[in-house]
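Work through what follows:
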Amino acid sequence: MSGVQTITVEMGEGDQRLDRWLKRRFPELTQGRIEKGCRKGEFRIDGARAKPASRVAEGQAVRIPPIAEGQSVPPFKRTKMPPSQADVEMMQRAVLYRDAHLMAINKPPGLPSQGGSKQLRHVDGLSDALRFGGDKPKLVHRLDKDTSGVLLLARTAEAARALAAAFRARETRKIYWAAVAGTPKPEIGTIRYGLVKAGGDAEKMRTLHPDLVAETRDAKHATTDYATLSMLGTRAAWMALVPVTGRTHQLRAHIAAIGNPIIGDGKYGGSSQENLGDGWGAGMGGLSRKLHLHARSLRMTHPFTGAQLTLTAPLPDHMARTWQMFEWHPDDVPADPFEDMS
């Protein structure tokens, strides 16, 4: 058995769950071993007890209890293969905004924000293509792999700290567009279901009544504002969504929970899920099976100039085709429908 170790979270390893960080460092550690160790206080972050879902940050010290021989700490490795010319051009075409401090890209659907054990091609790994004569830009928030839209990156360490603080303080406003099965009732509202990991191997969240959050282990409160922008009879709706909180799969789980799964969402909707009324589920005939969820805009105060920035991303091709089929026109709705409806 090896003794107690203290490992510093290195550059590029920050802002990820403790259990995922541990599995990258110790591939043979099981989820059960990690969860048991956290309950017993064996795994700690900067001396404090931690949960598997606690997030590590660069520079923090993680206490590792004695582990079996053969589970020694491998050095943190990055994939150093340079981006292909096609990826360089793709990433540079995706840039929506750039200044000396930060940039925003329109993340394509299907491209993860950050790598994992099975993800070798991702925004973080391809961001060398976005240096433009400066340092490699750093992610300051995430989008799900299959979600497209506005993704912010910091071009300096100072900007990364300032932007991360703005996200933590909820000083940014993000509006997502989604095409959903059925039509929400009421057309405008707020969803306050709590969220907790559903269990099993696949990462999936389940919803629960807000009153049950306090008594449910690892559950968290979550809030989503929504507004219906247009309807296709009773079959489909174009929705604007604002995640007041930022939980894993929050929008997808919340919208499915009210009976309107996002089109193309096999995890929370699925082609077999029926919609009350006409039987249309999340997989509608003739439409792309890709997820129809897009981070349309992000509004914030620039941390260095004080200017008000509103960054807007065009729809990805598969959603643009759906909008055209349903005769929905992006220019026909306000940039922030929640202000317009207040």
About this structure: The mean pLDDT is 87.
